Amino acid sequence: MDTDQLIRTLSADNAHRAPRVGAMLTMALLVAAPLSILIFATFLGVRPDVMSAMHNPFFDMKFAVTLSLAIPAIIISLHLSRPEALMRGWGWLLLLPVGLLAVAIGSEAMMAPAMPMTMRLVGKNSRWCMLAIPAMSLPLLAGALFGLRHGAPSQPALAGALAGLLSAGLAATLYASHCTDDSPLFVATWYTIATAVVTAVGAAVGSKVLRY
Amino acid sequence: MRGREDEWTGLMRSAMAGDDAAYHRLLRAVTPVLRAAARRGLARAGQPPDQAEDIVQEILLAVHLKRHTWDSEAPFAPWLFAIGRNKLIDALRRRGRRVFVNIDDYAETLPGETPQETASTGEVTAQLNTLPQRQRDVLQSIAVDSASIKDTATKFSMSEGAVRVALHRGLAALTAKLRDH
Q: Where residue B134 sits, what CATH number does that domain have?
C-alpha cells in the first residue's frame, strides 16, 4: 500500500468519531471503582467511631491530602495524554498534598501531644495500610491505564506513574475512612510508601501499555 | 511557515467537523513535510533513508487514530510534530536493535558477507496480510481499488455500517501490529 492509498483509506474513515480521553478515563474508573469498594467493604469497612472522628480535624485532613493527590493526578494525566503536552507548569499541582501534609504536621507539633511521636508515626495499622492501599489501587490502576491508552502520551512511563498516583490517591481516600491512625506523621510515612509502590507499578506497566 | 501551519489548523478543524475532503487535503499536505523529517532523522542516525516511507505511514496512522487528542483550539502543527517525533524515535529504536541483531547473526554464520539491508517493501503492506479476511478485503478495496465505502459494501454484500466498522478496526489492528512487531 503506498502512502497515497493509505491517505485515501484514512480519509474514508474520517467519519469515525472516538470519545475524548477524559470520557474514557471516567468510564474506566467508574467500572473499576466497585471492585475497589468491594475489597474495602469485604476486608476493611468504615471505622466504627467515624461520627466522632469527623470532629477531629486530623481525620478530615487525611481526605484533603488524598483527594489533593487524586484530583490533580487525574487532571495532569489527561493533560499528558496529548502528544505535545509537557509536564512543565503542571508538576506543582502534585505539591498540593505535600504542602497540606507539611501544614498538618506543623500544627500537630504545636499541639500538646496526645501520644508520643513514635507511636503516632508507627500507629497501629502501618502494615494494613501498606497492603490495603496498593490492593484497592490495583483495579483503579488497571482502569486508569485502560482509559489513558485512549490517549497519545509522549512519555508513557510518566503517564503511567500519574495513573499510579491517581489510583493510589483514590484508594487512600477509601482507606482513610477505615484507618484509626489520624496523625499526619502516620499519613506522611505509610500512605506515601504505599503510594510510591503503586506509582512505580503504574510507571512500569505504563511504559509498555501506554505506547501508541 | 506560519501561513502553512495556520492552513493545516483550519483544514483539521474542517476535517473534525466532518469534511472528508479537507481531511484528505490535510494529510496530503503534511506528508512531504513528515517525509523530509523522517529522512533527516534516519540520516542523522546513520540509517538508510529508504525506510522513511514506513515511518511516514506509521505517523499518518497514529495521527488518524489519535486525532481526538488534538485540541481544536490549539494549533495543529505542534501536535502533529510531537507524534512524528515519537514515531521516529520508536522506529529508530526498533531498527537499531534489529540491525544489531542482524550483524551478530551474520558475523557468526556468514563471515565476510555484509548484512543486506532489505529494501523497504512496505511494513504496512506486510502487516495488512496478517489481518482477518474481512478487514483485509475492505482495506484493500478502498486503498488499492479506490472503491468508495458504498461500492465496497456492494462488492462484498455487506452493509455500509459493517464496511465502516471493518475499515476502522482494520486500521486500528494495523497500527497495533506495526507498533508491536
A: 1.10.10.10
Its domain, for residue A168, covers: 20-209
Among B31, B64, B78, select the one facing A13 at the smallest CB separation: B64
Residue B174 belongs to some domain of the structure: yes
Closest chain B residue by Cα to residue A78: B69
ipTM entry: 0.89
Report the half-sphere exposure of A140 (CA within 13 A, side-chain side). Answer: 31
| B110 — pLDDT class (breaks 50, 70, 90) | very low
In the DSSP assignment, the letter for residue A111 is S
Domain that holds residue B38: 2-109
Task: Tell which B residues from 2 to 31 touch A, by Cβ distance under 8 Å.
Answer: 15, 18, 20-21, 23-24, 27-28, 31
Nine-digit cell string for B94: 526498533
Least confident of A31-45, A48-62, B8-22: A48-62
Domain count, chain A: 1
- Domain-located, residue B114: no
Q: How far apart are CA B138 and CA A17, in angstroms?
A: 19
